[in-house]
Prior knowledge:
- The protein is built from 17 helices and 21 strands.
- By secondary structure, the protein is α+β, with helices and mostly antiparallel strands.
- The strands form 5 sheets. Strands 1, 5, 6, 7, 8, 9, 10, 11 and 12 form a 9-stranded mixed beta sheet that branches.
- A hairpin with a 2-residue loop joins strand 18 (523-526) and strand 19.
- Helix 2 (71-90) crosses helix 5 and helix 8 packs antiparallel against helix 9 (270-279).
Amino acid sequence: MADATDPNVEKSEKVLKREEEKRRKKAEKEAKEAAKKEKAAAPSAGPVTIKLVANPPIDLDPCPGTRDFYPEDMRLREWLFGHFNAVAELCGFQNYDAPVLEMQELYKRKAGEEITQQMYAFNDKSEPPREVTLRPEMTPSLARMVLKQGPTLNLPLKWSSIPQCWRYETTTRGRKREHYQWNMDIVGCRSIAAEVELLYAITLFFKRIGITSAEVGIKINSRKVLGSVLDSFGVSKEKFAPVCVVVDKLDKIGPDEVKKQLVEDLQVPEDSAEKIIQSLSLKSVEELAKLCGGVENDAVKELTQLFAMAKDYGFDDYLLFDASVVRGLAYYTGVVFECFDRRGELRAICGGGRYDRLMSLYGAEQEVPACGFGFGDCVIIELLKDLNKLPNTSKQVDFCVAAYNADMQSTAMRVAAAIREGGCSADVLLEPKKKIALAFEYADKVGADNIVFVAPDEWAKGVVAVKDLRASADAAAKQVEVKVADLGIIKEVLARSQADVSSDMARLNVADVTPVHSDVQTEGTAGGAEAGACSTCPTDGHVLHINVASVNIKKIDLKAYGIETAICQVCLEC
Length: 574
């Protein structure tokens, strides 16, 4: 047995203690490093930020030809749609909608098999699979819905919609693979008055958003007129549609190539091809009649009536006859129109016309008179940008509610609820700020007109402090105390407060007050009362104490009225 006093034993114990101490220190160091890493990985107590890794695992851009609508984009879209819907409502139209997914046959019946090359078409998972597509346009859906309930509908129908449409096309400025399109259609009216009503709606929209007839125009043509013209040139009815397709390329390929295709591909006589090209540059029906030796009387009468009615309606300055508008004439049966940018920098803004034969393609026993237009959302936004007429769509909210501290957060939410129940919008500051300046900064970022402070002292008195963030520097009553019981009518309370202060200031001529230093005795008048300087008043020079019977104001903050002085205040007594 070893002796406890043995030096070797003592040395061994010291080594063990040192080793134990090393292990303890190492463990403490590792614990500190682990805590440091955990703290670094934990969410910061400071402002929340969003940072992107160097190589994100997904493509953050939307699919080519499509768009994301961030809140600022949505506000602009809602502004635009608001005007679309307002015009439709003013004109007595009803809104409708249909599924974005439709059967392919609906569009093949109208435009042929080749239309599938422009569609987002696919087979669904049913057995057997159905050929379906994202809708490329809305009119076929309208026709399907009308035919389904045809006998029960009261004609004429006036329907409006803003569907999202999909076409797999080359994207250019003003053309996406998805877009929203304002549609207005009238079904069951043979009169040219239907087209006039649609044209009026378009021009009313332009007037509402500040676009004049000097900036846009609407070209008018008629299938009946052009059909009569081509007939007089010896072009058969069977060639009408392919001739329209060729002459529609005039701006792109030029008159020589158009003439070549008419003569070589469609076997149109050369002299007729020249007259067709010449006719497209004419700007009145009368000029066409002279060139062609007369056109169909009904067609001329119809167009003449259209322009006369537009003049009586008050929008004829937007319209002009243009025989070069041939797009879609193979589909349309009467008047056709196209809205354009008079600067010539953008593609067509909208277009439409009469399509009396469409319902027959889908099963109607006889032709159903119908006309309508499509107005896309992309080109009009580009036009507004070019004309510097985009609206101010910055975020706006009536009130921002800010709690004094975390203990008052639930109370602040209660205040916001009361304000909202009264019909005003309120944004709650979800995490109280340590500095009041940060609360003001948040309120400004969310576009608040006023900020409501919910603090313990005011709450104990049954009030909250409301500060007007948009008032000018010299405006009256920038901050007001509002009773908690009045939060549901807070705007009315603020309006009354503003009116009361403005009225009092009108009766109290502040210019009559002669501010003086505290060691000077003087007299003046305010509201008809004698004024005397008070030698014991404070020296901030901004608060005026008054008790004039005709004014009945005990305290006025002169800073609220833009009065800045560097001298002490004046006390006035009756």
